[in-house]
Design a protein that fits this description.
By secondary structure, this protein is of the alpha+beta class. It has 14 helices and 13 strands. Strand 1 and strand 2 form a beta hairpin. It starts with 11 loop residues before the first helix and ends with a helix. Bound molecules: 5-S-methyl-5-thio-alpha-D-ribofuranose (SR1) and magnesium ion (MG).
Length: 413
């Protein structure tokens, strides 16, 4: 039984009326619409519009996982983690996160920018659209967070305080279980097409994969480098095209927002690089499956785009590091090399969990079964190859080349 009131379409007008921080955002005396728009696994999300078209988004954390119901309790304090990440990240890259108007710690509600003129990037990719500029924005976001929330960019005491406040064990445990452990060791939540059962069995019997995921989980649980987003997949990115897409579905973005940072914690920076890489692979697997090979190649080119933007932003901030006496350019080179290689490992974890584990993604899941079979097989085999080659040549280009080869070899003919 929750000790706080859940938002409903009926009680939201009163909530807004008693929340001064949103009074200048929407006209609370002239509300025109209010609808629940949440399609995620965890929370309630409402969009409220007033008579002149201005809007506000209200997101409320439930005390359990929405995807499964009350049988899986989950701390609503995740709203605080999201609010704190929005604040910290927004100070670094205000153009790349939703603007937050209010955080209510009693009812675990965040009032934030109406992004109804954007769309979730995953949905756009699934529809065959190519939003140019989104992958670059994601890389710039991660580069800013890497520098600005880490020991490189923060005052020592402020850093210690931020690390302490960011401890987020319940949300981290979801990732530890669903991303690193359960794809290999089924806890009763795994599933796949019958035709992919041999692939899932090969995957879980792969000693190299087990060793790699053991290492990845260890990094995830011990490497407190920066206030990472923690769940930076293409469903956590909103994109807005500057105009109508061209005949090939290409459109320049004029706005990108990385949102839904409730999994934020001080963790390994490369987790926020491997996650988008894995999702570019999923988008490419879908595009190859439906015969859109040129667009699939574009999806895979995003791996380098995100990395390059990340590296550019990180290098741009590097001259401002707090202790240049010991953090020399050799440190810079070492950090970049380490993160590049760890991104392979995290990408492998993030791509395979969506195929065999709980909480799948729509890129592959909504393909017709005969096409899904090859796409799923390709992703599982790619994941196993990636952990083998991560230490060999860890460039983003090599990652994309390998992905192309393995996805094409396995797609359903
Ligand atoms: C129970 S939550 C399942 C998944 O949804 C979130 O988006 C995270 O990716 C999490 O692993
Ligand atoms: Mg989410």
């Amino acid at each position: 039984m929750a000790d706080y009131e859940f938002l409903t379409v009926e009680n939201i007008p009163d909530y807004l009326r008693t929340t001064p921080a949103v009074r200048d955002v929407v006209d609370v005396d002239d509300l025109a619409s209010c609808e629940e728009i949440g399609d995620g696994n965890l929370n309630l999300v409402f969009l409220v519009k007033d008579g002149s078209g201005r809007g506000v988004c209200l997101k409320q954390a439930l005390p359990y996982v929405r995807m499964t119901g009350e049988g899986w309790p989950m701390t609503p304090d995740r709203a605080r983690h999201e609010a704190e990440a929005l604040t910290a990240h927004g100070a670094l890259v205000p153009d790349l996160v939703p603007r937050m108007y209010h955080y209510d710690p009693h009812r675990h509600i965040i009032a934030m920018e109406d992004l109804s003129d954007h769309r979730v990037w995953r949905g756009a990719l699934n529809d065959g659209l190519s939003h140019v500029g989104a992958a670059e924005a994601v890389g710039r976001y991660v580069g800013a967070v890497a520098f600005g929330t880490s020991a490189l960019g923060m005052d020592r005491e402020a850093l210690a305080d931020a690390v302490a406040r960011s401890v987020n064990p319940q949300l981290c445990e979801i990732t530890e279980d669903l991303v690193f452990t359960e794809p290999l060791v089924d806890a009763g939540r795994n599933s796949c097409l019958p035709a992919n059962e041999p692939d899932a069995a090969d995957f879980s019997a792969d000693d190299a994969m087990m060793r790699a995921m053991g290492h990845a989980k260890w990094l995830f649980m011990t490497r407190a480098e920066a206030l990472v987003h923690g769940d930076l997949h293409t469903g956590s990115v909103m994109v807005r095209g500057a105009g109508a897409p061209d005949a090939h579905g290409r459109v320049e973005c004029d706005s990108v927002r990385c949102f839904d940072s409730e999994f934020a914690f001080y963790g390994p920076l490369a987790f926020d690089l491997g996650a988008p890489w894995a999702n570019y692979v999923a988008a490419a697997a879908r595009a190859f499956a439906v015969g859109e090979d040129t667009r699939a190649d574009w999806c895979l080119s995003l791996v380098s785009v995100t990395w390059d933007a990340f590296e550019t932003e990180f290098r741009r901030r590097w001259p401002d590091r707090r202790d240049p006496r010991v953090w020399t350019d050799a440190t810079l080179a070492d950090l970049l090399l380490t993160w590049r290689s760890e991104a392979w490992l995290f990408a492998a974890a993030k791509m395979s969990r969506r195929i065999v584990g709980a909480a799948k993604n729509t890129d592959v899941e909504t393909l017709p079964p005969e096409l899904r079979e090859g796409a799923a097989r390709g992703i599982l085999r790619l994941s196993r190859q990636v952990v083998r080659e991560a230490g060999v040549e860890s460039s983003p280009q090599a990652f994309s080349r390998l992905a192309r080869q393995v996805l094409l070899e396995n797609r359903t003919r």
